[in-house]
């Protein structure tokens, strides 16, 4: 269930960015029913068993949708982000969001996870959280 703090995050955005975030939140929430969502590091993020799975943030020129384990999904429309296993898609209009594609990514996000929850405890070493073949 989308929380009040996430609704407040959306309400503070420009109308076009709010529409993007509303669409993303609705699709994520519908397809990750067992996930907890909250504002984390100032952005909406969904977690499974305490592990960050997907979130989004307003950038200067777009809204970035980020999958923490996205580089392992084998999806050409997700682009590597950062030094770990994250991958992203960026949107400038809600009409750019392909809900079927997003649903497929969310299914993979549920099944393919790297353990970001314990990254600090492991001193920056990332390990697989669920069994999958890369």
Plain-language structure description:
It is built from 3 helices and 6 strands, in the order ααββββββα. By secondary structure, it is α+β, with helices and mostly antiparallel strands. It has a single domain, classed as Aspartate Aminotransferase, domain 1 (Alpha-Beta Complex), CATH 3.90.1150.200. Strands 1-2-3-4-6-5 form a 6-stranded antiparallel β-sheet, covered by helices on one side. A hairpin with a 6-residue loop joins β5 and β6. α2 packs across α3. The mean pLDDT is about 90.
CATH class: Alpha Beta
Rg from Cα = 14 Å
Name the helicity range. 25-40%
| Pattern of helices and strands | HHEEEEEEH
Could you give the count of β-strands?
A: 6
Q: What is the arithmetic mean of pLDDT?
A: 89
Q: What count of helical segments does DSSP give?
A: 3
CATH architecture: Alpha-Beta Complex
Strand order of the largest sheet: 1-2-3-4-6-5
Structural class: alpha+beta
Strand content: 15-25%
Instruction: Tell me the span between the first and last alpha carbons.
Output: 31 Å
Enter the CATH topology name.
Answer: Aspartate Aminotransferase, domain 1
| Main sheet: strands, sense, barrel | 6 strands, antiparallel
Form type: globular
What is the total number of structural domains? 1
Show unreliable segments: none
């Amino acid at each position: 269930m989308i929380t009040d703090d996430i609704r407040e995050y959306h309400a503070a955005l420009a109308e076009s960015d709010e529409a993007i975030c509303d669409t993303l939140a609705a699709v994520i929430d519908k397809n990750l029913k067992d996930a907890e969502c909250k504002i984390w590091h100032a952005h909406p993020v969904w977690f499974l068993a305490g592990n960050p799975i997907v979130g989004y943030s307003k950038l200067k020129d777009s809204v970035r949708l980020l999958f923490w384990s996205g580089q392992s999904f084998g999806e050409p429309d997700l682009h590597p982000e950062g030094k770990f296993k994250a991958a992203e898609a960026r949107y400038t209009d809600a009409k750019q969001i392909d809900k079927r594609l997003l649903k497929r990514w969310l299914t993979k996000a549920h099944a393919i996870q790297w353990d970001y929850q314990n990254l600090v405890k492991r001193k920056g070493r990332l390990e697989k959280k669920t069994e999958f073949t890369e």
